[in-house]
Amino acid sequence: MKYRFFTLLAFIVILFAACDRKKKDKPAPAVTDIKEKFQEFHPEEFKEEDNITPRDFSIDTSNSYSSIFFDSSALVKYLSDNKIDRAVGSRMTSFYNARNYQFSWFSSDGPTEQARGFWNMHNYLTTYENGKVLIDSSLQKRMDVYVADDDTSTKWTSKDKLLLNTELKMTQHYIMFALLNYDKGFVERKELESFVPVKKDSVPALVTSLLNGENLDKKYYDSVNPSYKKLKDELAKYVEIQKAGGWPKINADAKTLAATDTSKFIAVLKEHLFITGDLATKDTTPFFTAELDSAIRIFQVRHGYKPTGKLTDSQIRDMNVSADKRITQILINLGRTQWLVAEPAGKLITVNIPEFILHVKDGKEKVFDMVVVVGKQGSKTTMFTGNLNTIVFSPYWNVPYSISKKEIAPGIRRSGNAYLARQNMEVVGTWGNGIPRVRQKPGGNNSLGRVKFLFPNSYDIYFHDTPSKSLFKNDKRAYSHGCIRLSDPVKMANYLLQGDTAWTAPKIDSAMHMSKEKYVKVKPAVPVLITYYTAWVDDDGLLHFADDIYGHDKDLTAKMFTKK
Prior knowledge:
The protein contains 22 helices and 16 strands. The chain has helices at residues 5-8, 11-19, 31-41, 72-81, 86-99, 113-128, 137-148, 161-180, 189-194, 203-211, 216-224, 226-243, 254-258, 264-275, 290-302, 313-319, 323-337, 401-415, 417-422, 489-496, 505-511, 552-560, and strands spanning 106-107, 110-111, 347-352, 357-362, 365-375, 384-393, 397-398, 425-432, 435-440, 451-454, 463-464, 478-480, 484-486, 518-531, 535-537, 543-545. The longest helix has 20 residues, at 161-180.
């Protein structure tokens, strides 16, 4: 079977390969090697008449995935100015012909999800793997700024020459990455062009395409990507539910449902839960039963609530989301799941942002789960992959500029040193413009708590303790400034250092109560994967839905689907 390109973009394959072996001092291929190796294995691609996709003039702003287009002459100039070799250049031309010179990595509202996903993979490759040929400091600086920019008022256009250059360089790196994997098999040109969405389609058309048994690409995804296969199976079930008329709406509030053990609303609730699979046996009686209590608890778990057996108004609103909308939600997350291929062979920490849960696994074995607090809207937690390699006990908190400007500077102006003393803070410099550079000393009221866990990244995101424990009791937990707060950091520290006999539980506890910070290396480093899924199937086969807390689903819906 030919090697499918989406497996190349499965950064987890790269990630776990790095964690299961010692790093080899293998020299990175030179750019010229890309062309030579590709020609060696695939000389048919280098005939005089380059195998280039004809330009698709049917794509315009009315149906394009991205709303930004550029003139084809800009690509010609880029290829010439940067002396791009033919192996890459011909594919870049073909890639943009297929898109009618629509941007692939940016739209009018900023980087696309595909840009964030590819840049995440690119970062991991160049940071932890043998990706020297793809290192580009100017691209790194630009993309780090673009990915971190949450200012929705910014309008991104092709008139921005720096943005256009970044767009073209991202595509160059995308294709170079594919060609550098020549030893893993042939990467088809069409796959390079279709992996990044080209234009809008209707939901029914996309469903038909995905569930069509003759679609060989989708069959291949099924065979190598268990997460994708499980979610696609749920799509098929929900399509059948939709065809049968969906589920009944619950026209009662939680108070009404709780007021009685028998009513017409109970019968409707049973019907709803039977259709969604939460209630195992069809039951049309109007009585509240033990089986119904169990079904409600399953529904609550699947939607991110504590399994109390008692419904709330927000849970009833979740029940009343239509089958049509759930199908759209599954489609969006199937696209995200294509970036995930292999189960890890070693330790892995994952956080799915909308789930508010941290998972620790060792291979296919679950070690433990932990509730977390993630970034709030306006201070979003960024999706990325990194290696957790350092624990900092009794940390200082270096207050970010934005917080210093909005909160600390006004407090100092009001109360001076008394404010700093109350906050256990000290001034260590200046940001300029009268904004002090401040850090909070170790201690019980430190905003990072007693310990933090570092996995180096460009977004200054890490795991940490917190003195504010009450927020962990809530079902929805998006409150932080972007970092991820752990409900049980002591458990995490003990787990990460369990192989180090020098770090016993009492010593860890002592280190968390010092007056100065202590850095400890984690060996080997543990991969951390931070994702954004609002629909997924867990290891027990349960389909979960989560709120679109950052509006990513809403943005993708506008880009992916026609209104009809």
